[in-house]
Write a structure and sequence with these properties.
single chain; about 210 residues; seven-stranded mixed sheet; five-stranded antiparallel sheet; 12 strands; about 25% helix; globular
């Protein structure tokens, strides 16, 4: 996946940034949400069941990894951005700078894997991403995945990161509505245990089939 780490670092440092779509529209990057969470109830739902080793794929500035670590849960953040990894470590939580499709530690031994904040869209291939997530999980492991709102459908697109100073390269992304969770999970060898809407966020818990 092509990624402009300098611009992303600027976003994490507080500069105004947005995602640009090929239709010309732009979406502000919710950096404050990535740092602090959209709503404490959402973050609670994402991590409340995590009582064993947990990997957060695309951890960003590490709020969920930090919350788990401070609770005494063994957790690890994975992110392609060196700035995100540095911020996560500054918060007292472990993180590795890796592409989520690289070789990752403890394959087949994680009890939980998290895909939050739209990260189901990484690389524009949700089935491949969920398949990688499944491989990371231990037998009986659970993936906690945040989807988009019902009716979004399955949208494959190209986006790029922009600031007032410049723009990054285009790279593939995807948006997936919660009503597609069953189909995506089945294609990746997972099954939906349950799902919930929490403060306008849609979360599904997926187990290895």
């Amino acid at each position: 996946m092509t990624f402009h780490s300098d611009l992303y670092a600027q976003a994490l440092a507080g500069e105004e940034c947005w995602w640009r779509r090929t239709d010309g529209s732009r979406v502000p990057i919710p950096v404050r949400q990535w740092f602090h969470g959209a709503d404490s109830r959402v973050d609670h739902a994402l991590v409340c069941c995590c009582d064993g080793p947990t990997v957060d794929l695309g951890c960003g500035p590490g709020r969920l990894v930090a919350a788990l670590t401070h609770r005494g849960v063994a957790a690890l953040g994975i992110d392609i951005s060196p700035m995100a990894v540095a911020v996560t470590r500054f918060r007292g939580a472990p993180a590795l700078q890796r592409d989520v499709f690289d070789r990752l530690p403890a394959v087949g031994r994680w009890e939980y894997a998290i895909l939050a904040d739209g990260n189901i869209g990484i690389a524009g291939d949700p089935v491949r991403l969920l398949g990688q997530t499944r491989r990371l999980l231990a037998r009986g492991g659970v993936a906690i995945v945040e989807f988009d709102y019902p009716g979004t459908g399955f949208v494959e697109e190209q986006i790029r990161l922009e600031t007032r100073a410049g723009a990054g390269d285009w790279f593939p992304w995807a948006r997936v509505g919660i009503d597609h969770a069953d189909r995506m999970a089945t294609a990746a060898g997972l099954r939906v245990l349950t799902s919930a809407e929490v403060s306008g966020h849609y979360i599904a818990w997926l187990a290895r089939s």
